[in-house]
Amino acid sequence: MSVLLATLLLLIPVLLLLIRRRKPSKRVPPGSLGIPIIGQSLGLLRAMRSNNAEKWIEQRIRKYGPVSKLNLFGTPTVLIYGQAANKFIFANNGGTIDNQQTQSVKMILGDRNILELNGEDHKRVRSALMSFLKPESLKLYVGKIDGEVRRHLEMHWKGKQNVKVLPLMKTLTFNIICSLLFGLEPGKQRDQFLVSFHTMIKGMWSIPINLPFTRYNRSLRASARIQKMLKQIVDRKRVELERNEASTHQDLITCLIGIQSAGDEQVITEKEIIHNSMLVMVAGYDTSSVLITFLIRLLANEPAIFAAVLQEQEEIAKSKQSGEPLTWEDLAKMKYTWRVALETLRMFPPIFGGFRKAVTDIEYDGYIIPKGWQIFWVTAMTQMDNSIFPEPTKFDPSRFEEQLSIPPYCFIAFGGGSRICPGYELARIETLVSIHYLVTSFSWKLCADDNFSRDPMPVPTQGLPIEIWPRKNLP
């Protein structure tokens, strides 16, 4: 008995030492995973829809600290935020973090889009997309976008006294995307696309419960319809290219088909063409329409800024012949207008948060993010940080006169590092062309309050109704 007791006494210090050594490696952040599958998803979604998401995050920070664990959309998750978090995400090019969206986004947009790909696959597919989305290529399509904007204003704005901005901007960006990406002209097929597309995007941030009555299920079925339509477009365009009846420069899909194989090596698969066409479609449609909508709202509230934007755009308009479309060179002159757009993105970012996946145990800020867990970082918390942007609630485009003065990883409206948004230039062209024709053709005033919700993109009250009148007929 005494021998056993002596042995136990000798083992206790060793056991305590082992426990001390192992404890830090298992020190996951504080917090609760909540109810399985559902977790805190409903709470976050409710906060977003009531425009209290920032307060919801701040309450978690006060309760658990700057790093905490929770369960979002069926996956154990670690929440991080701030400049260090942004740098941690965008500067990580090693094998510790994978680019992965929520299960709902992955299943709806497909597992071969660049939001899901990593390493060499990501580089390969991103390079293929950039062959169309790089500035040197997109400058060829400014005239095409110009034509879509003019047709839209002629059809939906001219002769009207009141309009709802957000639905119209979604219609405009959808038409631009259909024309630019797929070569789809107005008609039955474009209309079918629109119906399915609206249903699909509603479930992208949802709890992945695949039952008939859920938003997620409806989105999955709409995604399947869109993928089938895209497959038909790919097949048709491949035949047209083989018969020399199409050019690889006419739209995104013909461009990708044209570079699908280089010698014996496949550059991009058909599945990757379809999944990434859907991704670019969502990005070009949703984020650009939200940006233009909030630009219109802010210009109504800021008459001095409206006057400065109008002056810049009228100088460009005076240099054009009647009916002459805008050019790439004209867009380069819209420096102030683009600073106004960037300030709009700072204050009202379309994207609230992003997701990654830990591929190994990761130490962050004294805690361990376990392998396989999801990382949720709130992308724009730095953009309203008073220590980075003084008077953050004040609309001040001059902040972007010298962008190098903004600390790195603090303004990330278009991502960063190797993950910077490939559609950045497309969003810039859509925005600048649209604002040019809007401010030179119309004046407006708001007909609703300034409130908005997130679903998950910002949605102004009643879709932002405004009263409009032609500039030649000012009240």
UniProtKB/TrEMBL annotation:
The lineage of its organism: Eukaryota, Viridiplantae, Streptophyta, Embryophyta, Tracheophyta. Heme binds at residue 421. Gene3D superfamilies: Cytochrome P450. PANTHER family: CYTOCHROME P450 (PTHR24286:SF190), CYTOCHROME P450 26 (PTHR24286). InterPro entries: Cyt_P450, Cyt_P450_CS, Cyt_P450_E_grp-I, Cyt_P450_sf. It is found in: Membrane. It is a single-pass membrane protein. Residues 1-16 form the signal peptide. Its cofactor is heme. This is Cytochrome P450. One of its GO terms (cellular component) is membrane. The keyword Signal applies. CDD domains: CYP90-like. The keyword Iron applies. One of its GO terms (biological process) is sterol metabolic process. Belongs to the cytochrome P450 family. Pfam families: p450. GO terms for molecular function: heme binding; iron ion binding; monooxygenase activity; oxidoreductase activity, acting on paired donors, with incorporation or reduction of molecular oxygen. Keywords: Heme, Iron, Membrane, Metal-binding, Monooxygenase, Oxidoreductase, Signal, Transmembrane, Transmembrane helix.
